[in-house]
Amino acid sequence: MTQRRCWKLVRRPVGDIAPGDLELVQENLPDLAEGQFLLQIIYISLDPTNRIWMSDMEQYMPPVPLGAPMRAGVCGRVIASRKAGVAEGQIMAGLGEWADHMVTDGAMMSPLPSLPGVPLAASYGTLALVGPTAYFGLLDIGQPKPGETLVVSAAAGGVGQIVGQIGKIKGCHVIGIAGGRAKCDYVVNELGFDAAIDYKAEDVGAALDRLAPGGIDINFEQVGGPIMAAVMQRMKLFGRVPLCGLISTYNDVTPAEEPGFWTLMLMRRLTVRGFIVTDFAPRFAECGAALAGWMLAGQLKTRQDIRPGLENAVDAVKQLYSGGNFGKLLIEVAAP
Amino acid sequence: MTQRRCWKLVRRPVGDIAPGDLELVQENLPDLAEGQFLLQIIYISLDPTNRIWMSDMEQYMPPVPLGAPMRAGVCGRVIASRKAGVAEGQIMAGLGEWADHMVTDGAMMSPLPSLPGVPLAASYGTLALVGPTAYFGLLDIGQPKPGETLVVSAAAGGVGQIVGQIGKIKGCHVIGIAGGRAKCDYVVNELGFDAAIDYKAEDVGAALDRLAPGGIDINFEQVGGPIMAAVMQRMKLFGRVPLCGLISTYNDVTPAEEPGFWTLMLMRRLTVRGFIVTDFAPRFAECGAALAGWMLAGQLKTRQDIRPGLENAVDAVKQLYSGGNFGKLLIEVAAP
Questions:
Q1: Number of H helices, E strands in chain B
Q2: DSSP letter string over A61-105?
Q3: Given an 8 Å threshold on Cβ–Cβ distance, is A263 in contact with B60?
Q4: Could you tell me if A319 and A47 are in contact, meaning their C-beta atoms sit under 8 angstroms apart?
Q5: A200-237 b/e with 16+ CB inside 10 Å = b?
Q6: Which end of chain A is more exposed for a tag (fewer CB within 10 A), N or C?
Q7: B274 vs A58, A224, A270: nearest CB
Q8: Is B273's CB within 8 Å of A269's CB?
Q9: Closest Cα of chain B to A101: distance in Å?
Q10: How far apart are CA A11 and CA A18, in angstroms?
Q11: What's the average pLDDT block by block, 10 residues per block, for chain B (336 residues)?
Q12: Which residues of B are less than 8 Å from A49 in CB distance?
């Protein structure tokens, strides 16, 4: 019998996540049934949507039930298997739990390819969840064309850093919005964005007027609030808005109903489309091949913000909502 | 030298159109230059967007300059021509003026086909402007599929009556929203909508819950305000919103910034796309053929609300914003 440590959701947070909302427990795992395997979790992916799953607001999957393990993207190593086609030692990634081990039938998991010379944290932190989110949101909804201007908020985060680089690959003029000089320097100097706006130090609207005087073709929207408003007001005719997230609102107790820009959407003939990465699941293979190809060709670099220790998951996830992470936020539960 | 009567915009309306904002003047028309023709205007199309053109708000064409003839969709008969390919007696339709005659190079006009057994008011009031608006908005943006639920506001108006009937042709469950029992009875009994909601007598949200308990796939949006809110809150996963107009806001002095439903758009993965019929100009021939075919097959009926007399244009256009029209609103300037 395997023992594990696991975070359970014991109370729905009201506003910011508070001590006692989640509880780290020790428990026994059941023996493997036919068709199951035991996964030693190596990385837990912490994502803005985790806060949504903790709430009972309207959302795109069932909320995590009270008393249940906290849901998360994870990757890990199979250490015992009674599932055909899944071998010990295999690295699997998909939907899992805030835990150090889990027993699963793997219905929501798939093998993570190993890329030569690429650490597991980078391949997991690029090919899983954030990479497909960036890829389908930008390419399918954003429809970037060479010479167009793309603005991406949360630019140094897990999704944003990839969106901007795919934008450059597609010939766009790419402007990132991020908090702090270090993140802005990173996306310009390391990732090749054309410019970055430090929303903590600059007026975003004035900076956009300076950096994109002709307006914005694509707003890859991740944050909502005043930053979204500044970008929306500068959209060009026939602009596109892949609506990926609204992180600035996720801790609101009663979310403000933000302005709709309806007249502007009509007059400038904008397209706004909300999406969730799993909508594109049938095309994950296409996406994985493209992302891996760009990574191996040196066209796609990503940064992970790795925090060791399952016990730190709650403190770490809260960093997402204050911009405390720098790159894709991962909890390292076990050595890769 | 031809004399004409023409409405000029002398002052931008503040709120509702007021006496003195437009002025009916008598003036001489210039002689025809090479490449021009003289059109006797038969029908002037009065459309919600006219109020936008009178203002200097952000819009999709230049506002009508102060002192200039009021712009409108028109159709008329060529009574003199110095333009190659345009013959006397030809019926032309396109962008013109609130006037009884006009001299034009016809750059924004094209011949209006004559349909056997169809009065000019019906062919003009269907094939021009409103028909293409309904056709492209519903088919290209709405992407209707058999069995889906379509809601159209301003259902007995010029565009709405056509949207609902194309929806039926495409196999949708069609719910119209209109003001008053007569309009509701018309769209159900005469046009074959599945149901109609009288927004002046019923709670729209409660009626939608009853008529579309499974939710709404397509919201053909024309009005904004509380009716839009009631529909948006009931959209289904992957719903589409062709954003055609926001008539409830056009007379606002300082338009209220209406709620954006951003969280709902994200969670339900909605697509909202603003459009103007001229965006689809390269495909007007395709649309004209389809609309004419449906009309001749008896699948598309339309009603015109014809008001005689150029002098009544201002009083008539104001009816649009209070729901005083019933069908496509036209001014009859001369006998067809």
A1: 10, 15
A2: SPPPPTTSBPEEEEEEEEEEE-STT--TT-EEEEEEESBSEEEE-
A3: no
A4: no
A5: eeeebbebbeebbeeebbbbbbbbbbebbbbbbebbbe
A6: N
A7: A270
A8: yes
A9: 30
A10: 10
A11: 94 95 97 97 96 93 96 97 97 97 95 94 96 98 98 96 98 98 98 98 98 98 95 98 93 79 95 96 94 96 97 96 94 97
A12: none
Judged by phi (left if over 0) then psi (alpha if -120 to 50, else beta), residue A169 lies in alpha
Q: Give the alpha-carbon dihedral of A315, A100, A124, A277, to 10 degrees.
A: -70
pTM of the model: 0.93
Which tens digits make up the pLDDT trace of A17-39? Answer: 999 999 999 999 999 999 999 99
CA distance A71 to B10: 64
pLDDT tens per residue, range A231-250 = 999 999 999 999 999 998 88
Q: In chain A, which among 267-296 make CB contacts under 8 A with chain B? A: 267-276, 279
Asked if B113 contacts B138 with a C-beta cutoff of 8 angstroms, the reply is no
CA distance A215 to A102: 49
User: In 3D, which of A225, A226, A208 has the Cα closest to residue A217?
Assistant: A208
Spell out the domains of chain A, with CATH numbers in brackets: 3-112+303-332 (3.90.180.10), 130-278 (3.40.50.720)
- Kindly state the DSSP code that residue B31 receives in the 8-state scheme: P
Most B CBs within 10 A among A249, A272, A275, A279, hence the mutation to make, goes to A272
**Is A316 exposed, middle or buried (CB count within 10 Å of its CB: 0-12, 13-18, 19+)?**
buried
Chain B residues near residue A270 by CB distance under 8 angstroms: 273-274
| Region at A80 (left for phi over 0; alpha for psi -120 to 50; beta for the rest) | beta
